[in-house]
Amino acid sequence: MMKKQRQRINGLFIIVLFFSCLRYGIGYDYLTYKDLILGVGDDYSLMAMEPIPKLLISFSHATHFQWFFIITSFLIYTPVFYVIKKKSSSPTLSLWIYIFFPLFFLESLSVVRNHVAFSFVFLSYYFFTEKKYVKTIIAFLIALGFHYSAIIALPIFLLHKFNIKKEFAIALVVVSLFSSAFVLSLVSSISSEIYVLEKFVSYAERSRGGGNLLAIIINIVMVYFFVMWNRLTRVNKANAAYLTFVCVGVAIWNFLGFDYTLRLRLSTYYLFFSLLLIPECRTVIKSKRHRFKPMVMSLCFIIFLLLFVVNIKSNLATHEQLSFLPYRLFFLEQ
After folding, report:
1. N or C: which terminus of the chain has fewer CB atoms within 10 Å of its end residue's CB?
2. Which ranges in 43-194 belong to alpha helices (H)?
């Protein structure tokens, strides 16, 4: 990696980290976490929480509530930037997608525990491909210790060796597009005292929907991957695994169309690998390759801005508080 590129990546890391560490009230769950830390939140929510966040909440209660967000910011972004620097064929493009595509950075400001789990599963897989199995297990246990949903990412390590074929992938995505109602009915019929299954059923029972615009974008991107599938797998063996993971992520997103939060929390473990896969498309394009990177960057930025336009329009109609605007600093809110 060239010195200038390394400096750009380090600069992006510092900007993202400070933006997240110093925020106040940004993200849908920020104030909920703050209340839990200060001891005025729902006791049941705290008791049901995973062990590592509980420890962080106890530490922050004894010191300052912002420490929870500072520490989790380090835990979210450090693994992502580390893996991208090591594995991406275009780290700056991968990071641009991470920052401006709504599923990743923006959601990390809200779904804090989940995003620590996403990042550590991502890191765990990197260690797995490097045959560092002790680190693989430790990273995965940290992910599980932050959010129990990480259990759904276990098949990643099997799918690494047993990649799905293009024809099966297409069939899986097509079936998933029309199966959300069936999955909702199936999940609603589950009766279990296992905590993870209980949570899964509770999301199904409320079935709030949402995320349909993102569903369109994600499925269009998957169609593009289908077109590029053979060329991507020929140029780099790792791409076969990335294609498999992203395909599974898209299918999960479609299957769980009845609830936005559920589809986000479970599919993102797999969709994370699009950060490594999209830059690979540039390497197999025969003509106008130089246009690929600016085009993808522009599209991500437009989607990012559109999300804020939608949120602002909704705010004007309902007068509910915006989660991401205005940006505030925690040390000015004391």
Report:
1. C
2. 43-47, 51-62, 66-87, 91-100, 105-108, 112-129, 133-146, 155-159, 166-177, 180-188
